[in-house]
Amino acid sequence: MLTRSPLRTSRTAAALLLLLPLATLTACGSLQAAGLPPETSTATTATPAPPAAETTSSAVEPAAGVVVEPVANDLALGSAHHELQAGGMGLAVDYWSTLEMSRWTAGAAKPISLAATITGPNLGTAKKQQRAYISSFSVTATAVAADGSTSAPTTVTDVARQAPGYLAMAPYAYSTSFVVPQVPAGTRSVELLISYDVLEQSAPGASDYSKQTATDQLTVAIAAPAAG
Q1: First-to-last CA distance in the chain?
Q2: By CB distance 3.0 to 4.6 Å, which of 43, 124, 183, 210 could disulfide with 39?
Q3: Model-level pTM?
Q4: pLDDT for 2-52, tens place per residue?
Q5: Rounded CA gap, 221 and 72, in Å?
């Protein structure tokens, strides 16, 4: 079971809203802006949904006599925690959805939020420690049908509008939310390919940075519409 460490939102991260034909992305340094309810008027921590263990779900009703394998669902319990690598740095990411999985139907707007924190042996806020930033984030969504065919993928990208990027090392976090929109009828799952570009100072206080990329993948099942 995942135990979440409280995340203090970065005061420096600016809110972004990208409207694309098939997806919406909102990026910021605030967990509250990513769709989480505030705790109090001065709260800076977030409490996402309970941690998830990967389970399976039969997403779409099969035709009579046809046996369909169940679909793996990384958000079956509403949330998931992933540990990624970006060179010598780590990236701890929490994903969650405020929409119940039973309502992740083909025609629904399906929101996902995330909070990412960079970790590493050289990182910290002291003068003799290096800092790390997320300079860009992207997510590509692909709908997968029961026969394995896929729809044209859709990509949404958030590029930081401040140099060198969004401060995302503890106790700060990079947070963002995006929407998986309507997918074709008969879709059984949505595959999400996620990428983070991470910048690390070459030395404490330096203006030079090295870039590493961390990638991740989520599979989310599409539920059959409620009968009637």
Answers
A1: 37
A2: 43
A3: 0.71
A4: 334 433 334 333 333 333 334 445 554 433 333 333 333 333 333 344 444
A5: 7
